[in-house]
């Protein structure tokens, strides 16, 4: 029996759909059952109300579970709000889940983390993500960590944010000159990797898999692909990183859903890449090309 946290999220929804398609009935931890039933096939899964930040709700969620796929994180593109803090959700929530899992005799947790996770300043977004991995590694449970690069596919937050910008802004900002590299990977391919990890604990336990698509794109080239796919043309404007950082902080202070947050700026401080053959080498299949997928399927 599998429990999925973050089942209503971007990766979670795609994972649930594939598990259901292969005849499974996963249990999904959801914060709002009614809302979850609008995005998940409610008759084909078990919905359990709860939150990782509320330990008492986890007791029922983990009961009888063998493996947890943990994808309930507050990602950097989200603005913090009451009940949704990076630290509280990513560190506290993961700690609560591990404790509940151990108490209930859960065997294994597969954590969906992010490429580039590393120690950082105490209290920072990145440090929280690092601690969420570290706690699992030191938990005594069987574990696997998957660290994908940015994702594309239906509903992908990173791509949607950039497309919204193209649709609404007269120019597109090349943060830091647009040179930072990305390695977009299709959500379907990430789900295939998760399913392969679930199917083969002997080979994948106690491992961190960093995965990305088959090509590198600079931020400027990501815009080129999206401009072509949306049939738009926009001047690209150099946007110095410190200036964009200030802009992000201001937008975060005044907008409920800012297009950019200060935490998301970390994405622009390093190349979001790994080996080009990471998926083929570790999982035996070729992931989709970002450019080809957008040319054939649109945004
Ligand atoms: N999307 C990407 O491009 C990408 C790239 C690399 C890595 N990742 C990683 O993949 C993981 C999943 O990302 P995602 O894009 O699927 O995120 P997402 O769409 O923002 O989904 C987050 C999920 O977590 C749930 N959640 C948040 N706080 C919770 C809590 N306290 N208790 C229970 N559930 C809670 C949300 O539930 P509600 O519906 O109630 O809000 C939602 O289902 C994250 O670790 C992310 O960093 C994502």
UniProtKB/TrEMBL annotation:
Pfam families hit by this protein: NAD_binding_10 (PF13460)
InterPro entries the UniProt entry points to: ComplexI_NDUFA9_subunit, NAD(P)-bd_dom, NAD(P)-bd_dom_sf
Gene Ontology molecular functions: protein-containing complex binding
Domain NAD(P)-binding: 6-153
Name of this chain's protein: Oxidoreductase
Taxon lineage: Bacteria, Bacillati, Chloroflexota, Ktedonobacteria, Ktedonobacterales
């Amino acid at each position: 029996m599998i429990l999925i946290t973050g089942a209503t999220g971007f990766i979670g929804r795609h994972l649930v759909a594939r598990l259901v398609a292969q005849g499974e009935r996963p249990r999904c931890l959801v914060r709002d059952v009614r809302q979850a039933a609008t995005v998940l096939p409610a008759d084909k899964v078990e919905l359990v109300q709860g939150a990782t930040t509320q330990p008492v709700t986890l007791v029922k969620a983990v009961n009888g579970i063998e493996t947890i796929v943990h994808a309930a994180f507050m990602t950097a593109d989200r603005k913090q709000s009451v009940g949704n803090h990076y630290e509280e959700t990513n560190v506290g929530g993961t700690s609560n889940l591990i404790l509940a899992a151990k108490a209930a005799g859960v065997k294994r947790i597969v954590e969906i983390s992010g490429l580039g996770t590393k120690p950082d300043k105490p209290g920072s977004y990145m440090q929280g993500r690092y601690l969420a991995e570290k706690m699992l590694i030191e938990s005594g449970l069987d574990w696997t960590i998957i660290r994908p690069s940015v994702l594309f596919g239906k509903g992908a937050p990173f791509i949607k944010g950039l497309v919204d910008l193209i649709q609404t802004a007269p120019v597109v900002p090349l943060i830091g000159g647009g040179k930072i590299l990305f390695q977009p990977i299709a959500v379907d391919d990430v789900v295939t990797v998760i399913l392969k990890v679930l199917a083969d604990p002997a080979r994948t336990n106690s491992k961190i898999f960093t995965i990305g698509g088959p090509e590198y794109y600079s931020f400027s080239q990501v815009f080129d692909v999206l401009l072509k796919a949306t049939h738009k043309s926009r001047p690209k404007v150099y946007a110095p990183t410190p200036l964009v950082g200030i802009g992000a902080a201001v937008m975060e202070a005044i907008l409920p859903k800012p297009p950019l947050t200060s935490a998301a700026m970390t994405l622009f401080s390093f190349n979001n890449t790994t080996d080009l053959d990471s998926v083929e080498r570790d999982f035996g299949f070729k992931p989709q090309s970002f450019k080809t997928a957008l040319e054939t399927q649109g945004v």
